[in-house]
Fold:
Amino acid sequence: MIGYLIRRFLQAIIVVLGVVVVVFLLSRLIPGGEARAVLGAKSTPPLIRQFNHANGLTQPLWVQFWHYLIGLPLLHLGYSYKFTEPVWDVIATRLPKTLVLVGTSTVLALVIAVPLGVLQVVKRNKPSDYALTGLSFVLYAMPSFFLATLLIIWFSFDAGLLPVSPPSNASPFAVWTDPKGFILPVVTLAALTVAGFSRYMRSSLLDAMAEDYIRTARAKGASSRRVLYGHALRNALIPIITLLGLSIPGIVSGAVIVETVFNYPGMGLLTVDAAINADIPTVLGTTLVITVATVIGSLLADVLYVIIDPRIRYGGSF
Structure:
């Protein structure tokens, strides 16, 4: 197990470095150069030369990349052109807000999706199963910005029950202490995640119910409840763990759209603002954070595999 984790950690480093190289090179291939993209209509040759010199863009490309690379362990991600402060300081104020928002919606989605998937198996081929399946397909196919807009129209404009957006100056944990303003963004993220998770849960549990050990348990006289919850459910949860780890990029990308629609100052809105304003260092920083989150999610899924199913072994032994 330790050897496997070391190998996976080294692979994760290689993946992160590969993403950093690609994004860094793309940032240097902007038509007209980074200086022209940032300065816009004010870009004159003297100002461009001054900007390039001040930001080290006159150095060879490999030197620029080396300076950026050696600064990563110290969280030196460059200087934000838009916010006029270090990129990490900007990210550090936004990241907790997104983590709490995404974490809350993901936990809520799991709490709802797993029982829904079990219910669909218990009520298989009955009207409730068909109704939940249809609702899942609708939510799964619905773009996050469309669902967010509908919720705002229904509950904010028409009913006047909920605010259009959370307080912009609220603390990251206001989603728990003052939840009213966060209900719509959390429900938007959770609803889209529930749709996918419940379908996978249903499919995985149906596969588990068809296994030989289920027939053996029934032959020994085990009750239907014990067969379902004591034998099938635990094995059916294994694919959900993989899906949870691999769905982190999709959940984060959904947060990008949802935070923009609800004007919530998290990592999603920061990424959009940085892209619109050609704030290249901030775009690099947010991309790096999302990449690291994706790699960590995949690694955690592999570790949880062993915890939930002790039969699984990596490398032959622990």
